């Protein structure tokens, strides 16, 4: 009579709530590389290689800590292809009375798991996913007490509750938000440090070979894989960030630079989302850098806001609004995703740069995801279902709990404004202000209509006209509509025509 713990590929931490109460002498841990999880969307090859390698390394860690682990690799003779079938098979071979697991990060898997207890006739115990600081009930209690949800207020409560960057009940530096100091373009001549990279060990090499054979038709390149695959390596990435980048993180967090994918970002989302790092230790490291005067408050607060604010907020938001969040389409957007989202072959340099980096690294930084690719998807009216699938596929840090709120809520306004108070829409001048992409582009960012005009310019004003009835009354968009009312009606009409022609030709 024993307990089986099913550990998912993104729960790679010895402190996982599902592991800590096991009796190592008689209970078992099951981990499995399965077809259903690896291909429910055609994940980027790097994402699969990263998770399989990290899973195999973590299996060794578990064994070193005296857990009894059954690890089913992809080519194992007993691989049954899905987590359910793997659990069923294990139960048929052993006397298992109870299955324990920490809540998975995706609704589809959670709904499936809820049916297992009856089907397998065993007890099922689902513990909280303790890779987060706010529990789901923390979020839903906070959300149910409000008419309007805004990350900023959630974040302030998290700062107070967890006492990050607080002194005598007040935020350090006298304000909650230093965003005003955090919008600088990267000056010419400044070269960001190289990202921390690791040689591929034998486990990673084996996994890459497997991925190239089994997932040939999946998106992306995998040969230059250089990511951390163990907790020790992930801690090194974190440490290098704190020492080499955090100081400049704030001021350049919105900057974009030709051929520079990494800039001053932390590059830890892969590891946080797979359990190799936990949010508390990351926040403590950043806070310590502030107290040791190694990083200024605008950088440290900006970083803390991402982890303690946005990351926790979107995860709570996901569970609060599922399953409807997945089908929301407030703007009735229907345009199919253009091919250049896969190839990067477009004369729009900002898009080409962002897609090609995504293909090569399974990574793009926040502003590329939000203000280039996301902004385009919003303005061109791309179908939320296709856009969500694309984001879930292409980034190695993508799981539905984080991808869906960012896409349907933050970029597409598909949730009708539950997450964001207004659409994150911008014309080419924003891209020109924050990057050097436009200097290398076929299009002219200063032109609003005609063959050479930057598509973001007419798409922006086309969007504003198309959705005027929806957004005119939004106080945060009033200024834009006042500007629009003073614009030349003929020019506006040309921009609407150009928008329609551009969208029509997108998939021609
Ligand atoms: P940094 O810029 O160094 O930020 C530090 C950390 O803050 C990140 O590692 C991440 O854990 C957290 N963070 C920052 N912004 C967000 C956010 N909006 N939501 C949740 N966490 C955040 N992040 C993912 O982890 N997975 C995704 O699938 C994902 N999809 C996104 C889709 C869109 C459309 C947008 C706009 C953002 C998305 N993000 C996603 C958030 C963000 O872009 C990435 O977390 C970030 O680029 C990862 O790189 P980094 O670790 O260098 O981040
Ligand atoms: C993303 C992923 C992939 C590619 N493969 C596996 C796998 O083979 N086995 C596994 O346990 N988990 C995998 N995962 C992570 C799961 O999809 C993840 O646990 C759910 O999406 C919930 O977040
Ligand atoms: Fe992008 Fe327009 Fe600038 Fe070209 S000109 S890089 S399309 S914003």
TrEMBL record:
Domain of life: Bacteria
SUPFAM superfamilies, sorted: Cryptochrome/photolyase FAD-binding domain (SSF48173)
InterPro entries for this protein: Crypto/Photolyase_FAD-like_sf, PhrB-like, Rossmann-like_a/b/a_fold, UV-DNA_repair_photolyase
Protein's UniProt name: Cryptochrome/photolyase family protein
Source taxonomy: Bacteria, Pseudomonadati, Pseudomonadota, Gammaproteobacteria, Alteromonadales
């Amino acid at each position: 009579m024993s307990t089986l713990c099913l550990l998912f590929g993104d729960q790679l931490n010895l402190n996982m709530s599902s592991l800590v109460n096991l009796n190592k002498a008689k209970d078992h841990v099951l981990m499995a590389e399965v077809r259903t999880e690896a291909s429910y969307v055609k994940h980027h090859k790097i994402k699969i290689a990263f998770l399989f390698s990290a899973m195999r390394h973590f299996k060794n860690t578990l064994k070193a800590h005296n857990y009894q682990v059954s690890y089913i690799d992809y080519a194992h003779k007993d691989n049954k292809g899905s987590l359910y079938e793997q659990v069923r098979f294990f139960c048929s071979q052993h006397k298992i009375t109870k299955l324990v697991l920490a809540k998975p990060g995706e609704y589809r898997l959670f709904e499936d798991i809820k049916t297992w207890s009856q089907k397998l006739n065993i007890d099922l115990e689902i513990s909280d996913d303790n890779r987060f600081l706010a529990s789901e009930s923390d979020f839903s209690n906070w959300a149910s007490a409000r008419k309007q949800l805004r990350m900023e207020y959630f974040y302030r409560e998290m700062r107070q509750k967890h006492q990050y960057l607080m002194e005598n009940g007040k935020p350090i530096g006298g304000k909650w938000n230093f965003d005003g100091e955090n919008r600088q373009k990267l000056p010419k001549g400044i070269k960001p440090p190289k990202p921390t990279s690791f040689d591929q060990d034998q486990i990673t090499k084996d996994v890459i070979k497997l991925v190239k054979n089994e997932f040939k038709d999946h998106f992306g390149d995998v040969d230059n894989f250089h990511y951390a695959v163990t907790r020790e390596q992930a801690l090194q990435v974190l440490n290098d960030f704190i020492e080499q980048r955090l100081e400049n993180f704030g001021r350049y967090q919105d900057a974009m630079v030709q051929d520079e994918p990494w800039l001053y970002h932390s590059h830890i989302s892969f590891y946080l989302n797979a359990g190799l790092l936990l949010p508390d230790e990351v926040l403590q490291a950043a806070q310590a850098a502030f107290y040791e005067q190694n990083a200024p408050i605008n950088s440290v607060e900006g970083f803390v806001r991402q982890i303690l604010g946005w990351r926790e907020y979107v995860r709570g938001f996901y569970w609060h609004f599922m399953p409807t969040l997945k089908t929301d389409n407030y703007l009735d957007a229907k345009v199919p995703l253009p091919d250049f989202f896969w190839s990067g072959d477009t004369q729009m340099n900002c898009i080409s740069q962002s897609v090609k980096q995504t293909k090569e690294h399974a990574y793009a930084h926040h502003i590329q995801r939000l203000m280039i690719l996301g902004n385009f998807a919003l303005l061109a009216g791309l179908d939320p279902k296709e856009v969500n699938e694309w984001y879930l596929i292409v980034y190695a840090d993508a799981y539905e709990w984080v991808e869906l709120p960012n896409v349907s809520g933050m970029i597409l306004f598909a949730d009708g404004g539950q997450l964001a108070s207004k659409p994150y829409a911008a014309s080419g001048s924003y891209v020109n202000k924050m990057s050097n992409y436009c200097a290398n582009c076929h299009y002219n960012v200063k032109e609003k209509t005609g063959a050479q005009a930057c598509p973001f310019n007419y798409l922006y004003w086309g969007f504003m006209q198309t959705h005027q009835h929806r957004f005119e009354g939004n106080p945060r968009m009033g200024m834009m509509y006042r500007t629009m009312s003073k614009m030349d009606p003929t020019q506006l009409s040309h921009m609407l025509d150009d928008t329609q022609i551009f969208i029509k030709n997108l998939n021609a």
